[in-house]
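Justification of resources, computational component.

The compute hours requested in this renewal are based largely on the per-chain cost of generating structure records like the one below. Each record pairs the submitted sequence with a full structure-token output. That output is archived, and it is also reused by downstream analysis tasks.
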Amino acid sequence: MSYIHGIQQTVMLDDYIQICLSFGTVRAYAATSAIHDRGSRNKGLSIVLSGEIKVGNYGLDGSYQITTVLRKGDTFGEFTLYASLARTHHAQALTECKIIQVPEPAFRSLISQHPAISEFITRSLAIKLHAALERLDDIRRLPTHVQLAKLIYQSYLTSQQVFMPLRQSDYAERLGVTVLTAHKSLTKLYDLQLIEKRYGGVAITCVERLECFLKENSSLLPL
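The structure output for this chain reads:
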């Protein structure tokens, strides 16, 4: 589940992945192993070849707040290359995974020889920034249950599926709130009959009703 509508536009195509393979090194990571830590300044582009990676940071109480889960075709590390910035989050393997690691010199050769990949990365970064700005606006303006409704609606736009196979803890991690807060928000949406419980997740009861709710309570539908 993501706030990015059209997230498929940020996933690298198989043809591009094949090109990147000749410029980088494939590294395998066991489940739960660290890929990089917040503050790391190693420059390079990382492309998920298989498996899942969680990206997030630890709170003051030691709890892990997940920002996103990366899968095949997802990329990270662009800010280290374009702006020499330190990495802002911890990245850890959720499952056994393989990642193409492209160091800075090889990355420069890659985008020089293959402008289409450079264009893809620039477009992908723009889409991710667009989503991050919208998410920040939501945090500042909207109650948690409205944020959750928007997150569910955004997932529908991306998947075109009314069923979301997620647990309370998944919603809590994605919104950066406690499980209790996520539970209360889900209960409000149940009471409003916007969603209903299903085995292994929840389902939107009526997409049009959810759209009306978001228009009335947020003034803005996702773009």
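The chain has two domains: 7-130, 142-218. The domain at 142-218 is CATH 1.10.10.10 (Arc Repressor Mutant, subunit A).
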